[in-house]
């Protein structure tokens, strides 16, 4: 199988597995226990937090400074942020292209009477930042929280986070960034980002599934989702998963230290895939304002991601044919790929129905190779030809 679904999840780095096995084999690991075994587990967590703090350029050991809450991943971090950051009745602003783990929480809150204000995106998939200040100030009450993803999981389009942070700072609004897709693909400094809270998820950067974090700037208050023990200063009670935490720290350290080599590698593999497919099928549409003639019209994208419309083919049929041909990709975010609704992201971009119906997402990783990409191009191209010929015959 040629795995090109790295925005859904990535292959764990063997060096991360080694660290985790070491911790798993080291014995019991309850960091709250008041004995030497518990203290050893606590030490491992403290060391992991130091490693994470350096990797994200935000020391996490200063009293009153930024802190990190470990969660089960991006979904939990987003739930925690949306439900716990703003006053319970304050309006929330979010873009129409957020991940379902943000949108579904917002819809849940809306059903309970919470006001949600939606930030539109343009046809290239970039949030319309010029309307953010008005959206925050609209109505009887200013918004208490803005949530914006750093890069979209389906199109890879990078969002204007710095400008949003500035607007939120000027208007005194809490700003949450879902950085799940950019960590390990783009340089990121949490210290200079200007956000109040940032979501991350380890399995997106070659770490284990089941662990992520919500970074909080110094002084940012949070209401917990869970209630129980005193772990993580009661922000997220429950025995800390020490092997997962150590795995996440190692993965993050590798992802950030190796980024100068990995980022151009991802870009060249993704471009190879796009160019190979487009030279075989020039009418394929690359989303994100991509245009051969006009580079300036292109939206900035994650280096590893391409979202393409295979006009004349149905995305679910393509997905199945590719699976059979040994290529793993996706027809949207992994959470909704088992179902048929068309992508809310492409719909929000106002794309024609035919483009939405035929769109597939490919995401390369550091484990993709030119050989695998070339083989994928051939397989994808063959599937596409077969499906469009079949459709022509049927019509
Ligand atoms: N946010 C974004 C942008 C994502 O792409 C994803 C996963 O695809 C999530 C959040 C959810 O992360 P997790 O799978 O760790 O719950």
Summarize the structure.
With 395 residues, the chain is of the alpha/beta class. The protein has helices spanning 14-25, 36-55, 74-84, 100-111, 132-137, 161-171, 190-193, 242-257, 259-280, 315-325, 344-348, 353-357, 370-394; strands at residues 2-3, 67-71, 92-95, 116-119, 145-149, 174-178, 197-201, 212-216, 285-286, 305-309, 327-328, 359-363.
Radius of gyration: 22 Å
Spans of at least 5 consecutive residues whose pLDDT stays below 50 are none
Helix fraction, binned, reads 40-55%
Distance between the termini: 32 Å
CATH homologous superfamily label of the largest domain:
Type I PLP-dependent aspartate aminotransferase-like (Major domain)
Cofactors and ligands: pyridoxal-5'-phosphate
Number of domains: 2
Quote the CATH topology of the largest domain.
Answer: Aspartate Aminotransferase, domain 2
Protein name: Cysteine desulfurase family protein
InterPro entries: Aminotrans_V_dom, Cysteine_dSase, PyrdxlP-dep_Trfase, PyrdxlP-dep_Trfase_major, PyrdxlP-dep_Trfase_small
Catalytic activity: (sulfur carrier)-H + L-cysteine = (sulfur carrier)-SH + L-alanine
Family: Belongs to the class-V pyridoxal-phosphate-dependent aminotransferase family. NifS/IscS subfamily.
């Amino acid at each position: 199988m040629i795995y090109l679904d790295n925005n859904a999840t990535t292959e764990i780095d063997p060096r991360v597995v080694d660290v985790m096995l070491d911790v798993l084999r080291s014995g019991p690991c309850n960091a709250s226990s008041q004995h030497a075994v518990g203290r050893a587990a606590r030490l491992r967590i403290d060391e992991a937090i130091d490693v994470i703090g350096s990797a994200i350029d935000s020391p996490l050991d200063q009293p009153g400074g930024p802190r990190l809450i470990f969660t089960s991943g991006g979904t939990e971090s987003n739930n925690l942020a949306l439900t716990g950051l703003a006053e319970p009745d304050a309006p929330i602003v979010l873009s129409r292209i957020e991940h379902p783990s943000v949108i579904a929480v917002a819809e849940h809150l809306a059903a309970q009477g919470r006001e949600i204000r939606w930030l539109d995106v343009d046809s290239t998939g970039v949030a319309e930042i010029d309307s953010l200040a008005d959206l925050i100030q609209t109505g009887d009450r200013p918004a208490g929280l803005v949530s914006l993803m750093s890069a979209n999981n389906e199109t890879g389009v990078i969002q204007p986070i710095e400008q949003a942070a500035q607007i939120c700072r000027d208007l005194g609004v809490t700003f949450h960034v879902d950085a799940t897709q950019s960590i390990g693909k783009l340089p990121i400094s949490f210290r200079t980002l200007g956000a109040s809270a940032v979501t991350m998820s380890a399995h997106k950067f070659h770490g284990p599934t089941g662990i992520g974090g919500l970074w909080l700037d110094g002084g940012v208050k949070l209401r917990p989702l869970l209630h129980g023990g005193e772990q993580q200063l009661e922000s997220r009670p429950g025995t800390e998963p020490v092997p997962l935490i150590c795995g996440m720290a190692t993965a993050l350290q590798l992802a950030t230290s190796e980024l100068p080599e990995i980022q151009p590698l991802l870009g060249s593999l993704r471009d190879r895939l796009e160019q190979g497919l487009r030279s075989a099928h020039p009418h394929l549409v690359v989303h994100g304002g991509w245009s051969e003639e006009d580079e300036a019209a292109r939206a900035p994208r994650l280096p590893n991601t391409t979202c393409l419309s295979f006009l004349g083919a149905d995305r679910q049929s393509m997905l199945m044919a590719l699976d059979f041909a040994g290529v793993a990709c996706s027809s949207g975010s992994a959470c909704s790929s088992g179902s048929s609704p068309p992508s809310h992201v492409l719909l929000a971009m106002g794309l024609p129905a035919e483009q939405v119906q035929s769109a597939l997402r490919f995401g390369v990783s550091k484990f993709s190779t030119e050989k695998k990409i070339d083989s994928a191009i051939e397989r994808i191209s063959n599937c596409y030809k077969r499906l469009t010929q079949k459709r022509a015959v049927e019509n």
